[in-house]
Amino acid sequence: MAKKKIQITETILRDAHQSLIATRMPLSDMLPILPQLDEIGFYSLECWGGATFDSCIRFLNEDPWERLRVIRQNCPKTRLQMLFRGQNMLGYRHYADDVLEYFVQRSVANGIDVIRIFDALNDIKNLQTAINATKAAKKENPNVEAQVAMSYTTGPIFTTDYYVNYAKQIEAAGADSICIKDMAALLTPYYTEELVTAIKKAVKIPVQLHTHYTSGLASMCLLKAIEAGCDRIDTAMSPLANGTSHAPTESMVAALQGTDYDTGLDLVKLSEIREYFMSLREKYIKSGLLDPKMLATDAKALIYQVPGGMLSNLLKQLKDAGKADKLTEVLEEVPKVRKDAGYPPLVTPTSQIVGTQAVFNVLFGEYKNCSGQFKDLVAGKYGTTPVPVDPAFRKRIIGDETPVTCRPADLLEPELEKLRAEIPEWIEQPEDVLTYAQFPQVAPKFFKARRDARIGLNPDADVAAHIHPV
Known about the structure:
Elements: E1 7-10, H1 15-21, H2 27-30, H3 34-40, E2 44-49, H4 52-60, H5 64-74, E3 79-84, H6 97-109, E4 114-118, H7 128-136, E5 145-151, H8 160-172, E6 177-182, H9 189-202, E7 207-211, H10 218-227, E8 232-235, H11 249-256, H12 267-287, H13 300-304, H14 308-320, H15 327-340, H16 350-364, H17 372-379, H18 391-398, H19 416-422, H20 432-438, H21 443-455
Parallel strand pairs: 1-2, 1-8, 2-3, 3-4, 4-5, 5-6, 6-7, 7-8
Helix pairs in contact: 6-7, 8-9, 9-10, 14-16, 15-16
C-alpha cells in the first residue's frame, strides 16, 4: 500500500465547544494556546461560522469579526476554517446573492482559508452561489478552498447511490473538496467504509469525514473511512472530545502512528496542549457550563434514527405541554411527517421543523395545526426536497399558494445597500452590515454595547434622562 498521510482538521475552537458548551468558549480562553496550536501542523483549525457568530454577539459580547482577526494574527501558519450554511449564511433565512457574496469576500479578507458549505436539503442550487463566491476569493488568497459538505442522514432514499450522485454534483459545481458531514452520529463503521469507497471511486477531489461521538462509534468510523481512502478527518483535543463532540485528536494520531496513514503530528506537543484544555474543561464543569452528561455515549440516535439534539428538543416540547408520556408516539410520527415533507435530512433547521410538526400531529391531530416553517418547507421555500412532495399533500398544507420550484434566492432582490441604510449610526467597520443582516434583532443591542464601551458610557446610564452614573 502506498503511504498516505492523513490530514486533520482540529475542531476545538468551534464545533467541539459548540457541541459541549453551547458555543460559549470566549476568545480570552483561546488566546493563550493559539501559538501552540499553530505549531502542530493541522490541515486546518476550524474556528468560525456555525453558531459562533450568534453566540459572540448574543452571549459573549464579542465581535465575531475581531475574533477571527485575532485568531488569524496568532495562527499565521495554519489554514483557518469556517462552517457556512450556503444561502442561509450563518442566519436563519435565505439571503440575496449580493449579501452572500460580500460575506464570503469579507470572511476571506479577515482570515478564513477553508469555507465548508452545506445545505440542509442537500440542494445543490442553494450552494452554487457560495461555491462561486469562494472560488472568486482565490484571486485575493490562493489558499482559499471551497469545501462542500453533504448532510448525511438515513432513510429509504438515502442510499449509497444517492450520496455518490450528490458527490458528482458537488464536484461538477466546482468544489475543491467534499466533506461527509455526519452531524447526528448516524454512521456505522462498515457502512462508512462502503460509502467512502464508493465516493472515492466517483470523484477526484479530496474527501473528508466529519462525525460526532454521540453514539460511541466515531473513532471506528474514522478508521474505516481512512482505510477506504478518506483524505482528511475532523477531531477534537481530548478534553473537549467524546460525547456529542468528536473523536479525540491525540487518540487518532496515536492510532495512525507508524502506519501508512501516519499524520506526522507530534504527540508530545499535543499532550502539552491537552494540559491547557484540561484546565478549561475543569473550569467549565465547575461553573456548570459543561454538563458531564454531555460526555457520555448515547446510542438512542441509532435506535430512533433521529439526531440526539432533536430527541432532547422533542422531549422538552412535550414536557412543556405536560405530555412527556407521548414521546414514543411522536418518535413514531417523525418518519411519517418526514416522508410527507419529501424526506428532508434531519439537520438544522429541518430537524426542528419536522420534529415540531410531529409533536403538533400527536397533540392536535394530523396536520390540524401546521407551523409556518412547515408550510414553507412544503411550499419549496427552503429549496428542493430530496423527494418531490405529493401535490395533493402540498395542497392540503398550503392551499392554492403557488409552490416555489426555482432556487429560492432567485426571488430575492439585492438587499445589501438596503441593509446598510437601516443602520448608518451603528456601522464602525464594513462587516457590521453583515452582522446586522443575519441577526437584525440582536445586532443593534451588541452595537450599542460596543459603542457605549468605546466612549466610556456606563451600561446603567439613562441616556434619555441624561443620567450617567459614575
